Amino acid sequence: MSSPAPDAGPGPSRLVVLAGPTAVGKGTVAGRMREANPDVWISVSATTRAPRPDEVDGVHYWFVSDDEFDRMVAEDELLEWAVVHGAARYGTPRAPVEEALAEGRPAMLEIDLQGARQVRETMPGALFVFLAPPSFEELERRLVGRGTETAEERARRLDTAHEELAAESEFDVTIVNREVTAAVDELVALLKSGS
Predict the structure, then answer these.
(1) Is 58 part of a structural domain of the chain?
(2) Closest CA to 78 of 36, 44, 52
(3) What's the rounded Cα separation, in Å, for the pair 181 and 186?
(4) What digits encode the pLDDT tens for the residues 153-187?
């Protein structure tokens, strides 16, 4: 008579990757998700850009120097990384993602399109969610309303947004961000269903 196998705890969970165009509200949705659902693990990206006035290091991003980012790339510490809007570099530290998944926690990356494409190569079993604006005009209104970019940066981001919107078909699911709470609710349902 064999004894029952010991309980190994929860199995690895499925990663959800949230991406979409600039100013669509990815950070706002992720922040609201973090507040309302502390059981959901959300990756914090590293970036070489300077913090905006309301951003906290280690909460919104890990703000690192170009030299530190180079070291992280060289030592394969990033799951994905890219130059975004022709300026700063952003990347997802690998170890915290692998740890959260191994613990069986609902886990999410909030990243840009380039990063999502890299993650698809390395983790094809992830669920890829595209956060879309209700319209391009609304996207432009949100970008201008932030007031955090110069006119030149806004123009560059809007050019990038046209390309990013064209990539929607590469994703498994689309959530239209008409209202943050509703978008978060849809995302939570996806995360907790594991599909």
Answers:
(1) yes
(2) 44
(3) 9
(4) 888 888 888 889 999 999 999 999 999 999 999 99
Here the CATH number for the domain that contains residue 174 is 3.40.50.300
> Is residue 120 domain-resident?
yes
Q: What are 38-54's pLDDT values in tens digits?
A: 888 999 999 999 998 88
Which residues does residue 91 pair with via DSSP β-bridges, in sequence order?
46, 81
Could you tell me which of 169, 168, 15 has the C-alpha nearest to residue 103? 15
Strands laid side by side in the 89-93 sheet: 62-63, 46-47, 89-93, 78-83
Q: Retrieve residue 150's tokens.
A: 């110069």
